[in-house]
Specification:
By secondary structure, the chain is an alpha+beta fold. The chain contains three helices and twelve strands; from the N terminus they run ααβββββββββββαβ. The two termini are about 25 Å apart.
Amino acid sequence: MAFTLIGTKIACNLELKSLKTLKMKRILLVIIALCSVTIQAQQVDKAKKLLDEVYAKMVAYNNIYIDFKYNLDNIAENINQETKGNVTIAKDKYVLNYLGATKMYDGSKTYTIVPENEEITIEKKASDDSTITPSKMLTFYKKGYKYKWDIQQNVRGRKIQYVELKPQKANSEVKQILLGIDIQTKHIYNLIEIGKNGTRTTITVNTFKTNQPLSANIFKFDREKYKKDGYTITEM
């Protein structure tokens, strides 16, 4: 820990940057779950039919736009946070806007853009199985979870059917995941992740649009523009 004012400021900035990056990776993980859990349908016939229908719809879209609300709650730790974000997904690419930052994947590299710090981190496409990338969106939950048909709720006139997923690994930090599916549209309504530490993370889809007209440059990183704007660009 630095003992000068400048050193302390640098340390704080690094800590905030690291925290923001971790939060963006977490929200991306949950959003990927929104688009991918349907592959898990292997055990329960009733759940399998519904999940297969959702999957069939997802893969048929050229692109998906999701505007979402993110809630993080932990009663024991007195944590109650709410924020909003949006993500555009097109096949193997995405742009996620969350916590005042942007995370973009162009098919080969991931760009984390933080305007507040005028910093950009570029990561090359990783080959290890533990890395979450858009190419894994439809197979992310293929292994490692058991699931069952859960309750159905009426939400403002919409019938929402829940499927419960539980990790098979005993050392998982996740206790269970509840996936809410709109019975009529076969779209995801929300996803609730409950951690073993009591933390409850809820992603609620406010807007779900498909096959939208997208800019040709939406997934392109303009390095020269950011250089001119004074951004620090770091390649991992």
